[in-house]
Structures are given as C-alpha cells and as structure tokens.
Amino acid sequence: MKRIFTTNLIFLLLLNAVIKPIWIFAIDRNVQITLGAQEYGLFFTLFNFTLFFNFLLDFGITNFNNREISFHPNKISNQFFNIIIIKATLALLYIIISIAAAIMVGFNNEQIKLLILLSTNQILASFILFIRSNLNALHHFKADSILSVLDKLILIALISIYLWGDTNMQFNVYIFALCQTFSYVLALITSLWLLLKRYNIHININLSKTRIKQIVKEGFPFATLVLLMSLYSRLDTVFIERLSDKGALSAGVYAQAFRLFDAFNMYPFLFASLMLPVISRMLSEKKDISDMFRFNMIILIVPVIAVAVPTIIFDKPLMSILYKEHIEISAEVLKLLMGSFFFVALSYLFGTALTANGNIWLLCRISLFTLVVNILLSIILIPQIGVIGAGFVNLISNGIAAVLQWFFFTKTFRIKIDWVITFKIVIFIIATIIVSVIFFEKSNASILGYIGAILAILVLAFLSGLIKLKSMITLLKDSKGE
C-alpha cells in the first residue's frame, strides 16, 4: 500500500506542480492585474459565494461514493446512473437557492448574472468530481490525476489567447467565466469517455427509487459535513466584501494573499484525495493502519513545514514580485494564512482518516463548532481591522478544527503518539526557522534566497532522518517492476 500510495502521489504532484503554478501565477494572477483589484475582488466574492451551496450540488455523494466503491467495487454498475439522476435534480435546486440567497444578500442584477454563470461552472465541476471519484475508488489513480489538471490545462490555453493573443475583444469577468465553462465541458466529456470506454467499466441503467432514497439518506451526513466545512473555510472571503469599509477592494487585496495559500493547499488536498481510498480499502480488509498513517503524516507534514516557514519569512518579497499594489497589507495577511496552512494540512490528515472510518457526524459536530467561532470572530474582527481580521479568523478557525480532529482521531484509532517522531518534528520546525532567517539575511530577501531556503530545508529533512531516502528509493524501484 505504501508503494501504491507513494508512486501515485508523486505522479499526481508532478502533474499539478507543472499545471497549477502556471494557472495560479501566470494566468489567474495576470487576470487579476488586468481586471483590477475591485473587479477581480467582486469575482472572488461571487466565486466563493457559489461554494457555500456546494453541499446541495453534491449532497456528500462524491465522498460517499468514493468510500462505498473503495469498499465494494462491484457496486459501481448499479449505482452510477442512480447518482447521476440525483445530481441532476440537486443541480436545479442549487441554482434556484443560489439565486434566491444572492437576492437576499443584496447582489444587483449584473452580479446575479455573473453568479449564474459561476454556479453553472460549479455544477459541471461537481459532475467531473463524481466521475473522478469512481476512477479514484477503483484505484485508477493515473487517470484521475490527469483529469485533475485537464480543465486547467484547457483554460490556460484559452485565457492565454485573450491575455496575450491578437484579439479585438476586450477581456472581462464574463469572458473569464465563459472560458471556464468551456474547459469544464471538455473535461467532463473526457472523464466520461475514460470511465465508460477506456476502462470498459460496465454501467447498468437501472433506476431504482429505493436505491436513490438510500443513496440520499447515506449521503446526507457527507452533505452536512461539506456544507459546514465550506462555510468555515470560505465565509471570511464573503464577510470581507460585506462587512469591511472598502468592500470589493478589500476582497481583492485578501485574494492576493489567499492565492498563495490556495496554491500551497494543493498538496494536502491532493494528498487526501489519494489517502481516502487507500485507508478505506485497508479498513475494509481489517488491516492495521497505524504504520501507514505514520508514513502519511511524515510525507505530508514535512513538505508543508518546508514551504510554510520560508513563505512567512519571505512574505513581502513574494508579494512584491507577484503584485504592484497593496504589498504591505497582503504580506501581513499571507503570514496568517501560512500559519493556517499548517492546520489545514493536519485537518486533511486526521479528517481523512476519520472519514474513511465513517465518523462523519463527529466531523460535522467539529465543523459546526468551528463555524460558530468563525462567524463570531468575523463579526467582531473584520469591521475593526479588515483583511487582517479575516486572516486571524482563518487561522483560529482552522487551528480549532485541526486540534479537535487530532483529539478524536487518537481517541478513535487508539494510535499512540510516537514521541521520537514528535520530537524530531519540533526540532525540524526550529531548524527550519533558523535556515529561513539565514537565507533571508544572506540573500537580501531575494526570491533565489526563498527557493534556496526551501531546498535546504528539504535536504535537512533527509539528513535528520525524518524522510528516509533509502525507503523512498526502494518504493520507486518496486513500482517500476509492476
């Protein structure tokens, strides 16, 4: 299992390491610069607004389906089209409720038009994720990895034409959203082809009201969890636009720092997407996950620390390279978000294990408590200190969620704390801070110093024995023989 997990994680990361940074820093960043902080800030707010109702789109079905097919692969033939019907119905409900909520919040007609387009994109993305969940659960990890970047690859090509091509059409947020729609449609067609034709997976068109009701009932806890997590992780972005004095401009400034946070968050997110079916399969086979979990913890936490600490130290140089305006304040927000990034990674680690074990209602209770804290802090801090307040809300919320998930994980799985590894991680964090400061001073806060610090920290991880080079090489050699 370690070999399967590691080799597919490396393949997934290599794909995303090429495509996602191009999208985030070359395309999305230039889109924001072209549109301006205020117009992009509105787009950023509306985009995050569409995420609040994603639980309606999916109703927890994707996570439920991933875990279910991982446990019982033969269920895909009878379950697939039943879920498609459910998701189509939920998509209609999602559009209606999103528009109604937008009217209640006070968005104007032009904003609602853009919201409808972005909501359509969310529907397409939801169907793609569902199809990918089947490939992922059946351990077709490479196909799933390719699909994880396909829409962005198409979108990069389209947006590049508008940004740098010889076109007479003026670029705006509507063109940006329509390009996303086209990219999702092509990715959806490709994912269906892979599932039904390439892997010759037999699907029965066997619609059953009983089965549909059962899927909705079993998916409800997952839906509740998705809703609560979406709210506490994204609510701050909408509160900024609604509660701060500068509205959409403040949301645009926050988006500058959030872009790096979102980019780095790719690693734990992709990590968890592979970890869920692997741990689920092990639990279904009554295998002990303690050794696998400790292995996962190391290869997740070490890279997160190696990136988060230098980013905090090099906050202003990074922001000044990416943007021309609002550098000081976005750099301060970035520090807070990088602290939050560490807790988000821990949540992916412990939360995924609890999800695989079926402790969904427990995670819902944790998320509900975190959401209440998030809302209270947002109402207090954002009107007073704006985007900095939103950064604190993000940090505190994710910190609370991570600590609670860690506590209940240890209680549920009875995996004892490895104090040797814990001590090594603490020493590694201290060493990481020292290395980052040294590179910051010696390089005069240059981007080369930032890259050098990350590389030096990763070398330190191998030298300290946190990551064993020999074990990694053995895993890769074994995978070539398969």
From TrEMBL:
Transmembrane segments: 40-59, 80-106, 112-131, 143-165, 171-195, 215-235, 266-283, 295-313, 333-350, 362-382, 388-409, 421-440, 446-467
InterPro entries in alphabetical order: Poly_Biosynth_Transport, Polysacc_synth
Keyword set includes Zinc-finger: no
Major subcellular site: membrane
Membrane topology: Multi-pass membrane protein
Subcellular location: Cell membrane
Keyword Transmembrane: yes
GO CC entries: plasma membrane
UniProt keyword terms in alphabetical order: Cell membrane, Membrane, Transmembrane, Transmembrane helix
A Pfam family assignment: Polysacc_synt
UniProt name for this protein: Oligosaccharide flippase family protein
Organism of derivation: Tenuifilum thalassicum
